[in-house]
Structure formats: C-alpha cells, structure tokens
Amino acid sequence: MKYWLRCSGVFATVSILCASSFAEPETVTLYYWGNDNFDQNDVLSSLDLIQAFEVLHDGSDGKPRIKVVMGQSGSIDRTADSQRLLCAIAGGDPPDVVWFDRFAIGEWALRKAFLPLQEFIEEDLRVRPKDPFTLRKEQFYPACWEEASYEGVLYGVPDSCDNRALFYNLDVLDKFSEELIAAGCVDPSDPGKVGPPRTWTQLREACRILTAEKPGGDLVRIGFLPHSPNFGNSWLYIYAWLNGGSFLSADGRTCTLNSPLVAEALSYVTGLYDIQGGTTKVLAFQTSGMTADLDPFMSGKIAMKIDGNWYVTTIANTRRDLRFGVALAPASEGNERVGWCGGFAFVIPKGCKHPREAWEFIRFMESQQAFKIKADAGKQIANAGGNVFIPSMSARRDINEWAMNEYVYSDPGIGAKYKDAVRVFAESMETSRFRPVTPVGQILWNEQVRAMENGIYKKYLAEDVRGNAQRALDESAALVQRELDRLYHPVEYPEFDFRPVVLGYLGLLLVGTAGLYVFFGRRSKAAGYFRKEFYAGYLFASPWFIGFAVFGGGPIFFSLVMSFSQYDVFNPPKFVGFANYVNLVTNDPLFYKSLWNTVYMGLSVPVGMVVGLGIAMLLSREVRGMGVYRTIFYLPAVMPAVAASILWLWIFNPQEGVLNSVLGQFGVPNIKWLQDEAWSKPALIIMIVWGAGGSMIIWLAGLKGIPQHLYEAAELDGAGPLLRFRHVTIPMLSPYILFNLIMGLIGTFQVFTQAYIMTRGGPLDSTLFYVYALFNNAFRYMKMGYASAMAWILFAIVLLLTVWQIRLSRRWVHYESSNE
To answer: Taking the model in full, what pTM does it have?
Structure first.
C-alpha cells in the first residue's frame, strides 16, 4: 500500500511538471490608440503590423505573450485636440501606446502626462546594442527628434514625417513665361526657361503677373495663395522662418511672436493679398473647389501654393497629366529657403499598465520591417485601384532613404516629375524647421493664427500695413507671454484638500433633505389618510433623487469648487480664490468678444420664432397631404448638426454656392458669407432659422389648442384676419411664446457645433462663441479651473435672463385658467 502511494506521488509530480512545461504562456494585453480615424487602408495595414508584432512575441522565448488591441485615435480628426486621451488619463485607465501629434508633446510633458523614454533607449544601447530594433538618436531627422523632446528629454519616438514646399502649376507659368523671366523667375539650370520664384521680391512680382480678374472684379485666377486655412498648408510660422524670425526665445521663456522679423513677415503676406485683390476676395475664391476636378490648383485657378508632400500623391492619382513642379518656398532676400516639418510620434501615457511591453511595441513599429509591411500593403491596395503608390515619409532618415529608393526612385511606373517632387521634400528634411516645443504650444498656435488674420484683414490700422501687423502681433504675444509666466513663474497657491469638499457636499445634501422633510412633512400631516402614500411616493422617486445627487449635483458642485482653483486635470488642483473670475473680467479680451458674439446670435431667436409661427399657421390648415408637408418642414430640425454644417458649407460657398447663385439672379453681388467678418454671424443665423421646424411643432400644438369659438366671436364683432391674429391668436399663444423665448435664448448661449465645424471661430474671431471659448480653455489649453469659472458665469447669465423673462411674463402671458 505504501509502495503504491509512493509511486502515485511520483507519477503525479511528473505529470504536474510535464503539464507546466506545455502550459500556455502568460498573456499581456496591450492597448494601442493609433492613427486609424478614417482611412480604411491605415486600418488594414495597422492590423498587418499588429499581427506581425504578435508573431514575434508569441511567448515561445519564455517571455509573456503580447496581444495588441487597437482602439480609436487619441485625438479628434488627427489634431492636437486630444480630449479622448485627456479623459482616459484623468480616469485612470489610459492606453499603453498612443500615436500622438509631436506638436503637442511639450505641453503634455510639462504636466507629466507621458513617461520619459530616454531611459528605455539608454537601456537598449547598453543591454542590446546590436539588436536591429534598438533605436538611436542619429537615426532620426533632427527636427523630428527635437520636436518629440522637452527640455532635452525624449517623450515620444518620432514616427511619421511630413514637409512643406512650394507647388507651382507649369501650365500657368508657361503662359506668362516672358514676364516671369523678366521678373527673375527662371530655372537655375536654364536661365532661358521659366521657373518658380526663389525670393520674396520675385514672388510678389509673380503674384502681380499671374493674378487675373473678370470685368466685374471677381477673380479668375490668383498667382499665389499666401494663407491656407482650407486649401494648402501655410501659416505665419513658415513666413517668419523664411524671414529669419522665431516665436520663442532660446530658453523658451519669452514669446517673440511680435519681434520685428515676424512683423515684417506678416506685413509681406498682407501685401501679397493686396496685390491679388484683398484678403476676403482671395480666401473666398480659393473655396470654390476643394478636390478632384474642382481642385483650384489642378484646374489652374491657383498658380502656386505651399502644401505638404502628401499632395504629390493626390496629384498623381487625380490629375496624372498635370504639369507641375515643387521647390522650397521663397525666402526674403539673404535668408535660407527652408521647409516646415511636422508629424506624429509614439508616446506612453502616465498610468499605463504595461510600459515595458509598450516600449517593445514602439521599437517594432519604428523598425524597417514594420515600415516595409505597411508600405507593401499600401502599394498592393494602390496598384489594385490603378493608382500610383508613394509612401509617406519616415522620421528615421535611414528608413526614409531606403524607402524612397525602394518604392519611388527605382519604380519605372512613377514619372520623373513625381520623383523630383519627392526628392525636394526628402532632401530638405535635414534643414526643416518645426513648431516650437513649449507647454503653451496650442495657445501659441491659436494666437499666431489670430494675429495673422488680424493682420491680413487689417483689423486695426487699414492704411498702415506694418503698424497693423505689429499691433496684431503685440496683442497675441502678450496673451502667450502671460501664459508662459503663469507656467514658468507660478504663484504658490495651496493645494486643494478634497475631503472638506466631499464632506461639505454630503452635509449640504443632508441639510437639504432634512429641510425638505420638515417642509413637506408639515403639509402631509393635513393629508391624514394619504400620509403613508406620500412616503411611498418619496420611496419610489428616491432612485432619481440619488442619481441626481451623485451624477448631476456632484459634478455641478465639483465644477463650482474648481472655478476657484487652478486645475489642469493631470495635477492636483490649487486654490486661487477669485483669480479666475478676475482674470476673465480684466485680462481676457476674448471673454468679451465671445460674449458679444453670443449675444449677437440672440437675433436668431425672434427671427426663428416668427418663421416657426408662420410655418405652423400655414400647416395648421386641414388640407389633403398636410402630414407630408409637416414632415418635410420638420426634417431640418432632426438632421445631425455636423451633417447640416457640412451641407451649409456648400450652400454658403461664395463662388459655387446655391445661395449666391439664387441671389445673383436678382442682381445681388457675391457675398463672402463665412469669409467676411460682417457676414459670418448672419450666415449662421440663416442656418439656425432653417431649422425652425423644431419650434413649428410647438406652435402647431398651440394653434390647435385655441378654441374655435373665439375666432367666431371676433369675426361677428367685425374683426378681420389681422385683428383676429392680434387679439386672439397672440394672447392665446403667449405661454408658447414665453416657452420658445426662454428655450431659444438658452440654446443661443450654447451655440458651438456650427462654429466648430464651419468656421473654427473665424474670421477675426467673429464666430468665436462663448461655449467655443470655454471649450478651448478646457480641452485645448487644459485650464479646467478657468473654464469652470466661465461655465458659472454663463449659468448666472442664463439664470438672470430666465428669471427676468418669467417676471415680465406676468404682464403679458395669458393662461386660459387665469382668473384675470
């Protein structure tokens, strides 16, 4: 018996050891937020990359098996508006790897939202220097590496890479070759042949020569598109660099946005607009077509523009017969012609669960093997559709040189003009500039856009271009400098202690509950028999009360507390008292601008009410097919705001839009709806009134509720249609008027989507509404305390207006049950 037990034990031990040797390895799930918002090809190639990475890390080497789950992008529309990532980090559940805009790394690194990657690289160089996946600084272009670093520490591994240069339409240039050659625009290799301008003087002359107008004054063609909010990719940044200017001091503590060199660059750009007919006319003209056959550059409506290397592929697959060229953008006399580099990087957010595995994934994604997998997949997809394949550039110079030779320069199916264009972008990467790495990067970007618009539209001094540019830059530089001082020279405020806040809120709930119990308890005593039913009612309603107290009242109370704090989500809030409110009222010019823009939009309320009531009166008649008409008029009210905004972008198109075409039949000249400061808000009001079908339903219900005998009595007294409308319809609809007025004003103070989609707050901040400014402070500048103060000011304004309307309503609102 003992012998059998001993053998059984040995057998069991051997069985366990054997089973353990064949056990599944530990699996680590890695969450990756990539670049896969819209492009199906990106999704497919990313899945190929993930599959290849998982094969390399299948656990066969004794290490944990890594499984990658790919999620959405960390930002909206592949921009630095990274609300998704912000919420993930703040909620304590961030992804392990994020494909992130290098431009925004500096401000997130200051707030310690990303892990520094320097130690990972140093460890690899020390432990596995010969590993093909080991990364080295010298492999990357300087601009890409520096843009992904903050104060000498690497926070992101550069991945994609783009560059910007001058595109010129040779068909247009050849038509004016003699004049252009006389102006110095010649091909350096052949002085007798026309070429692109290389200096600002030559560019100015080319604009004058190439721009053409119709007899009525409308543009037919513009020589050069200086500023490209919708078409192309040029901003004040590149003009300042081409003039030797900069936007920050060497230590990053001082904003030099208003330096003389930058002011000179802005003055030059304004002059280019003046030569071609003015800012409003040029920007309106370039919106006449955006893609394919309507592309204004490919159709010859724009002779030259600054754009990115991705546009070469667009031309190759849209207008393969187009004669074009690419050169570095012209610089001011004596300065170097340079490109402008941008792109994305891989970062590891703070608080992720698997940083070591995340680094392994980044190493693989940055390898030549990964680039080849993605490029081969892209080439197969392009060739299957009969398109030309030109790979995107890599931030690694060794991979980029290999890829261009492998897929472009050695491919006989790609024309010489495309190879020459790609070579310009690739070779200029060594000297390309990049946006300043700073914790105020987003504010600096927005302010250079604002300063440029104020300059080219001559907002301040119409007759003094240089003076106007300097004033616009001074105003924006002061705002950026104030933010730099706040970050680099902070006032020592005490940290918030959340315990008294939570206890205070719980105490407030207890006191409020006790007060309600006492108040309603006294009233329920008079109910006698029904007193128990009162308690039962409270019991059944308690889930709603508890839900509101936790999920509604809690956040409301929290935002009130945060309005007295300095809070960026990543770090503990600090108590600042009334500083946020004081700064809003005394130091923030955009506060008053956004508030005025919002108040102006209040005009849409009475206009919308009149239109809605008019439609309701027409649809209140009982005729055949009325249900169909009511549905048609109601449809705009249920259309998604984003879809409606895109639709109205085409309607408001100044050159090809339906609205201007109709108005033109009556002799009305083209209106630059969304490109003109004076017309941008009226345009949005027209769009809002278009959705008056929502209020039409309420008006229709009110009209159906008016007793018919009141109209009959008024008619017997000799009242005509107008008198019946004035003395019967309006008084009986007064409760509905009050409701629509209150809800309309509340909706007006919440307008956001139209400006966010259609105008981005421009031109000249004319559509920067209050909620849009609040959104910028909260999610772009990460000033949550400041945004909370704005929210409570908005709440106070809406509350006062609502109370005021309700008090005034006692004088004019008629209720049918009223004893008066």
So the answer is: 0.85
